[in-house]
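Notebook entry, structure prediction.
Reason for the run: the old model in the group folder had no record of what sequence produced it. Starting over properly, with the input documented here first.
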Amino acid sequence: MQQYQAAMLLLQQGKCDKALAAFEKLLPAAPAELQERCKMYISTCQRQLDQHKLTFLTPEEHYDYAVSQLNTGYYEEAREQFNLILAKHPQADYAYYGLALLDAMTVRTQECLKNLAQAIELNPKNRLQARVDNDFQSMADDPRFTELLYPEVP
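New structure, fully documented this time:
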């Protein structure tokens, strides 16, 4: 149990490389109730270490990675990647669109509407894409969403 606590402390301190080694060393001898947790933390450490190794040639390539994280259920990682794109490329409409999708999937209605509105403002084609995108299914009954996708013509 002390080894597990020491590994957890390393992870909490952000020392993923050392935490990874500690969890891997602990795994074979860990009691059954800790083995699944160790495996989960090993995976977490590996993702954190891999994240720091990532380099992208284009913002679009970075977007593809963020979408892959979204599609595999790593929602916080996807959110972080979309935000990193926007930090470097504030006019990247596709990153706002990706955030809107993520927000719809995680039932963050206000954020979804805000990000989708920004994506549409930067590129009106996003309105057409959102109309047919099944990932916005959770937003379909919201009148604000409908108004955003089908604005009245003055």
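Summary: The chain has a mean pLDDT of 90.
The old model has been moved to the deprecated folder.
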